[in-house]
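ok trying this again, last paste got cut off
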Amino acid sequence: MSMRWYVLDVNPEPWAVGPVGVARSGGKLKPYIGRNQQLAAYKEAVAEAIGEGQEKITGKVKLQFYFWRKRYDYTIPQSRSHRKHEADVTNMQKATEDALQGVLFDNDKDVNDIHSVLVEQGPDVHGRIVIGIEASPFLPEVMAELPQQVCDLLDHLDDEVPPDDRLSWEGDEVF
């Protein structure tokens, strides 16, 4: 199977925790985390943009994301103008991966290869997402494609290494 591509005219949202609070239950205070309404709306927008009837990939999945994010201006309750914060790519990746669960694949635990690029974000950017998806080989097959430097580091892990030593490399030299 080759990579399938989707271009969504949806402004990417970063993953964020829902509202946090404390409620009394049975005489005790219990913390809770509520549903993040912004992420719920984002998930629906992604599913709608992809459309119904898409063939789901079963088994392991490889994903590629490219993000353009518009940072909207908004007014807070004190009547001051603010601009949405700058988001990091890993939070946009997680929110989008969650949004695709049940749409292009069954469960995000099946994603074993993921790559994201934050192309641009700002107030004058047209928000959109480009998604690539394909079936992915299981990890042992992918291991054969590791760069030689990584294979060398893995070989060193099999040696007895004092816990305070660190393995890293620069260029072709492992140290």
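PB: full thing came through this time. The domain at 4-20+32-136 is CATH 3.30.1330.70 (60s Ribosomal Protein L30; Chain: A;).
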